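Blinded run. Sample ID left blank on purpose so nobody reads anything into the name before looking at the predicted structure. Input follows.
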Amino acid sequence: MITRKTLSRRTLLRGVGTAIALPVFDAMSPALASSSIPGKTPLRLAVVYVPNGIEMRYWNPDYEGKLGELPRILKPLQPFKDDLLLLTNLTQNNGRALLDGAGDHGRCCGAYLTGVHPRKSAVDIQAGVSCDQLIANHLGSQTRFPSLEVGLEDSRQAGDCDSGYSCAYTNNLAWRSETQPLPPILDPRTLFERLFGKGVELSPEARARQAKFRRSILDFVREDTRKLQGDLGPTDRRKLDEYLSSIRDIERQIERAEHDNAQIDPGMEKPYGIPADFAEHFKLMTDMITVAFQADLSRVVTFLVTREGSSRPYREIGISDGHHPLTHHRNDPDMIEKVAQINAYQVRQFAAWIEKLKSIQEGDGTLLDHSMITYGAGLSDGNRHTHDDLPVLIAGRANGTLKTGRRVVYRRETPITNLYLNLMDRMGVHAEHFADSTGRLDGLDLA
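Blinded prediction complete.
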């Protein structure tokens, strides 16, 4: 329903020290129709990276073509199989030990989006410009944030990072230049304040003082909200209520996480505001990515689901062993089983995010329809550190341009950078080649 007043796509709810961008409303349709992509909502790209490889025997189906029953690790995604593309036999050649530097875990993460073999010169780290940053450079002027970098764990906090350049490779997916990684935001409060606050990063002490007087961010935009509601039709008012409720829910989650962390033995060193529970932390960060996508704050996100080489235990599912040591299972059935459980647990959190994206109506489809959410790892077999037949899937229909609901098997040793050319095309970046690419992937297009 188009209302009596046409809204700009850049309409904001303003308050003291904050400005909340809005999702796509029906009342913005005329503005969207005159945008640089006529009749289309923005396309979003998120790259979700999991560490230490995947138990591929429980990832790859035993068939090609139309997706039917999904294997054990992918089972949480069964309700969304028609929205998935599962790609097989993609390889990250420059993650291999072709040259000196970085170690296997550093190489597989450092080369994942750059396609360039990470190395260490006499004076600094060197990787390459990542494909997400090429897209961010192209689209950055259209959104408040050219890109967002998000993560759940830093090896320097875990205490098992052996050198500066190794840390840079294992802790970063996004690279602005050959020597400049873009570190992910780990603290939910920091990400929230970046999206909605003044952009000032506060110390834990300053945040603690501020929290004593904190009101909901929605209180500061109450007057603007009231005025806007008068300009919206019933459908848009409902959409606004749902959107603002989701922001308030994120605030409550952050407050609860900070309270729960305060109950931890003070002898434990705990990063400020980061939930102890993996699933809670994952949900908080993806909820904020969802809001950022809805409000067109950014269209490019990298999400490092714990850093590469992570030895994190998953006690919440009964696994006290470290993830990385378990992957070096030497074919021990008990260890393999634990790795498979961790892989499935991580996919379960991802599936919950996909469900949320699919539930949000936007224009002529859903937020998931207008997204490309990739999920994968820079290793396949974590026991042998293999870089071929990587686990790669895409969720979302890319504004109706991806033919989903299928498993596509490519020739062995097909560079994963070929896929990045396809993704960049859809995001408006058209390149002859990227890193070690040999051409674009066939079989992805809807037509």
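Unblinding after everyone has recorded impressions. The chain has a mean pLDDT of 82.
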